[in-house]
Amino acid sequence: MSSSYASYAAPAPASKRLTISGKRGHDIFDQESTCLTIFAGILFAIGCSSHLAGTILNLPQIGATDAWMYNAIGAGVFILCGLVEYCNHMGGFHVFLILAGILGLVAEVFDGQENPISVHFNWAASHMYLCEAVKIYQAHAEDYYYFVEISKKYIMINTLITADMLFILGTVMDVVLSWFYLFTGSPNTPGSLAITGSGDHLNLLRTDDQKIVEAAHASLWFVSAILTLIVYIQMARVKASAGEEDDEKIKLSTGV
Questions:
Q1: Which pairs with CB-CB distance under 8 Å and at least 24 residues apart come from 194-201?
Q2: Three-class SS string for the chain?
Q3: Is the pLDDT of residue 25 over 70?
Q4: Span of 39-53, 97-111, 190-204, 211-225 with lowest mean pLDDT
Q5: Residues 119 and 12: beta-carbon distance below 8 Å
Q6: Do 55 and 218 meet the contact criterion of CB atoms below 8 Å apart?
Q7: What is the per-residue pLDDT across 137-184, written as a single tens digit (0 to 9) for each?
Q8: Is 189 exposed, middle or buried (0-12, 13-18, 19+ CB in 10 A)?
């Protein structure tokens, strides 16, 4: 199955963002935006962790029957992550993340019911995640100088790039697997699922090698999640430091 990712795009102005309690603080350090960003990073890490647990439990050596539940939980968390990111950044491409989470959740539920249509929902979800990954990379590239200005010496720009590329690589692996599942049957039911509309459900189609590949791409997403969360926390530290410096300047100039 699939995961999701939080955006690096600059937050939307507080006047345009769907805020929870209104704008607080000054323009440099918007406390609410920072909290939402870190919250999204935590959700991303939780979702990736749950997805990784599901793929590990589904490895040939383990083969846990309830592994799909962990993937379903991860997909549900990604839906929430997409909603938080949309409210914070007002980026239309986060609709891809929300749709991917919904489709992924439906795929896992049908897979648990041993319904072959889970293969098709998995295929659709994987492509939505790919759209999200591409848009995130574009947003990051467009805001490069913004991050250079904000990060200064505290944020490693290379960390952002690495997190982006790991997510894209893992997503491409997931998409390739989804095509294999769509057009190939299990050894007992050869043929094209897309043409016949019949075959096995998602987990029954997975070969031992494909389960290992799924665990590999889930691991890439997990590492990407940790790097993303580190960047978000470091960004919050820099913004907070900048806000404190501005407050001190105001006090010195006004005497208050």
A1: 197/116, 198/116, 199/116, 199/119, 200/116, 201/110, 201/111, 201/113, 201/114, 201/115, 201/116, 201/118, 201/119
A2: CCCCCCCCCCCCCCCCCCCCCCCCECCCCEHHHHHHHHHHHHHHHHHHHHHHHHHHHCCCCCCCCCHHHHHHHHHHHHHHHHHHHHHHHCCCCHHHHHHHHHHHHHHHHHHHCCCCCHHHHHHHHHHHHHHHHHHHHHHHHHCHHHHHHHHCCCCCHHHHHHHHHHHHHHHHHHHHHHHHHHHCCCCCCCCCHHHHCCCCCHHHHCCHHHHHHHHHHHHHHHHHHHHHHHHHHHHHHHHHHHHHHHHHHHHHHHCC
A3: no
A4: 190-204
A5: no
A6: yes
A7: 877 777 665 555 555 544 567 787 888 899 999 999 999 999 988 877
A8: middle
User: What pTM was estimated for this model as a whole?
Assistant: 0.76
Q: Which residues contact 172 (CB under 8 A, 6 or more apart)?
A: 130
* pLDDT one-digit tens code per residue, 53-62: 999 998 988 8
pLDDT at position 130 = 93
What are the structure tokens assigned to 97, written together? 């993340």
Q: Could you tell me the two tokens for 159?
A: 């960390």
